[in-house]
Amino acid sequence: MSRVLRDPLRADLLELIEQRDWATLNRILREQPAADIVELLDAVSVAEGTILFRLLPRKLAGEVFDLLPVERQNALITHMTGEEARTILERMTPDDRTALLEELPAHVTRRLLALLPEGQRSDALALLNYPPDSVGRLMTTAYVRVRPEWTREQVLDHLRRWGANSETLAMLYVTDERGKLLDDIRLRQVILADPGTRVEALMNWQFAALRADLDREAAVREFRKYDLFAMPVVDSEGMLIGIVTHDDVLRVEQEAATEDFHRIGTVSPLGMRFAEAGVGLLTRRRLGWLLSLVFVNLASGAVIGHYEELIAANTVLAFFLPLLIDSGGNSGAQSATLVVRALATGDVGPKDAGRLALRELGISMALGVTMAAAVFLLGWWRGGWDIAVVVAAAMAATVVASSLIGLLLPFLLSRFRADPATASAPLITSIADILGVAIYFAIAARWLVP
Q1: pTM
Q2: Which domains does the chain have, with CATH numbers?
Q3: How far apart are CA 138 and CA 2, in angstroms?
Q4: Which DSSP string do the residues of 267-280 spell out, in sequence order?
Q5: What is the arithmetic mean of pLDDT over 336-353?
Q6: Among 359, 366, 437, 424, residue whose Cα is nearest residue 398
Q7: Do 256 and 138 contact (CB within 8 A), yes or no?
Q8: How far apart are alpha carbons 322 and 196 in whole angstroms?
Q9: Residue 56: which of 37, 35, 42 has the closest Cα?
Q10: Which residue has the higher pLDDT, 97 or 174?
């Protein structure tokens, strides 16, 4: 039963809550793994979740709380008593505690900070003082540092004494007497070393570190580059002030990917889980872009209005208009999607724009000619030779132009420090629509009008 937390068990638990059968609820919840209880809490209301959470044994409650999304943590902790909140906050790692506190209203954060012991409160305030999107907000001060002159036995004794409070023991950080980072070594190196070996004998004096003021998305790229479980964080003088672990970076990467997906769909980032977003928030996040794109698309109508007489004289042109502008929008969206993702992962940078544009020119010409050949036959069938030439030429030109715009627009936005994901499919499609209409009727006017 412990692996099945779907509707039947949920219904049973809700019924037990209504019956106030706390003993049975407590017994059932004790049998469930922490991850399954998280799934259950995610499926019930905040009030019901608070009741269930309070029934958990202290150790299991801590494990469950650590696994909950930040939004759910916020909702739970604001319903806790002071003692309950203190117990949860004290056992949280500094970085997880910072992630929780920075999402709460200011008055709630102040109340919770007052519950912490002096040392933990000072650490929390120090981390909260870093810029919101910086590595400083991600790091934890729970790590193990060692000295180069220590022997293997001294390091192991130090680990036995202080290791339980560290977020990870996979990496140990070597510092001098002032706290300056000298190197990082793996615990397995110490364990496998001969007795009496000094730390300096295990060092290679080569390490990668993050600056506390570095943007957190840049930290993701550094982790990907060096493929480390954890990375040290230093200040401007190279002093070790914390570490960042891979789970924190994974959370940042997930948040960044979610924001990019939202922007690709021209939705402003929600800042919370979609399932918990209200009607008002979702409406506001979508309405701005939709209204903006309405005005952008008015330009297409203006171009069509300019060629009313041409369309009246050659009504068959209207038949091909949706085909052309959709093809241009699709090709532009393809280019933009590839570039936005490549920029996000660091595969390409601004210096690559020219080289990639030349490559895209060749690709889009091949695509344009192929698609032009396909519509040429359709144009000949529907309107004869002249219409076939106009449609084929417009198709090739629209695909090439839209593909180049789709590729270059993310680079342009990145240059002006805007999010490249803003060059989303709907925006590129709207620009390609205007461009396609203009190209189509310009070619038609030149070819068909005596």
Answers
A1: 0.53
A2: 7-133 (1.25.60.10), 145-252 (3.10.580.10), 276-448 (1.10.357.20)
A3: 34
A4: ----SS-GGG--HH
A5: 79
A6: 437
A7: no
A8: 78
A9: 37
A10: 174
Residue 433: both structure tokens together: 């629509």
Amino acid in position 104: L
Amino acid identity at 397: A
Using the CB atoms, write b or e for 244-254: b if 16+ within 10 Å.
bbbebbebbbe
**321, two tokens:** 């208009």
Residues in CB range of 2: below 8 A, 6 or more apart? 31, 32, 33, 36
Task: Give the pLDDT mean for 53-59.
Answer: 77
Q: Using CA atoms, how far apart are residues 32 and 30, in angstroms rounded to an integer?
A: 6
Q: Is the pLDDT of residue 11 over 70?
A: no
Q: Which residue has the higher pLDDT, 147 or 220?
A: 147
- Give the tokens for residue 224: 């990907």
Residues 6+ apart with CB under 8 A from 130: 136, 137, 212, 213
Report the alpha-carbon distance of residue 47 to residue 63 in Å, rounded.
20
Going by pLDDT thresholds of 50, 70 and 90, the confidence category of residue 366 is very high
User: What percentage of the chain has pLDDT greater than the value 90?
Assistant: 5
Q: Output the CA angle 305-308-313, nearest 5 degrees.
A: 165
Distance linking the first and last C-alpha atoms of the chain: 81
